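Work Package 3 (structural annotation) set out to generate three-dimensional models for the target panel prioritized at the project kickoff. During this period the team completed the workflow that converts sequence records into discrete structure tokens, so that structures can be stored uniformly alongside our sequence database. As a representative example, we reproduce one entry of 320 residues exactly as it appears in the project archive.
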Amino acid sequence: MTPAPRAQDWIDAGRTIAQSPAATYLSSVGAGSRRTVQQSLTHLASLLAGDKADPITLRWERLTRANTVEIRAQLKAAYAPATANKMLSVLRGVLRAARAMKLMTEGAFQTAASLEMIKPSATPPASAFTEGTAARLFEACANEPGAAGRRDAALLAIFLSTGLRRAEAAALDAGDYDAVTGRLHIRGERPEYDRIVTLPSPARDALADWFKVRTSEPGPLLLPVDRAGLIRFRRMTDQAIYDIFGRIAARAGMTGLSLRGMRRAYVVSLIRAGHTPEQVQYMVGHASWFTTATYQDLAADSSQTWYSIDRIPYRAPKGD
């Protein structure tokens, strides 16, 4: 029995771009898809030869049926069907390139590349974050008197409009928001995750109402409000952000909601609005396109109704 190749056996350090099936395949795809295909090739190479594997120097022609079946199983376990199938398509593409370069025989190609598509799970999909859900949350904010209700509505509008993380919300400063353009500068955990998102009109209205009581004084954008209704100029923790959302949901009489679920809903709304995976990856601060692509099955489910970012149902504070 032939032993399975070791990680180093997959690498040909002397292989040039002209000799590489990965480079040949990559040159054949459109410019708009090249980045995601490159990421897929890098990930597939890492499954065979470790995290630092270079798809250019990988011996793709050595892949057997046993190898590709194992890759399919790993992709199925790690990703949503839509994402896994995209990577399987890339795998077939690089194998076709190896065949065209006469590095694989027709028979070797057929046995390695004949993989079934991964079917979606029969598990019921997660419940959608609908416009009605958002309306009930904003109603709860409008019914909360004083500065706290305005702050809560601004917080909710920012999350629904940007899908940012709790820590990113806590890190926002008043100077990160441009009221003229509606642009919000979100600072990620690392500089490469920083991004600028333009808020829709309802979210701008929510922030305008918050600034009426917060004032334009420099400092954190979202501030704590004490029991007497006084605004305290100090930065909140991400746990405080979490607790505030929990109280909004409780006042709305809703259970099972989370900021993570709201972030997921934002990603789905972007995909449904026609944004490309690369655009969505930037707008939500995902480190990899693969993370973004895992939401595509949810976005494709026509039985689910998700809120629209441009139609956030903001309600002005009672009495205004």
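The radius of gyration is 24 Å.
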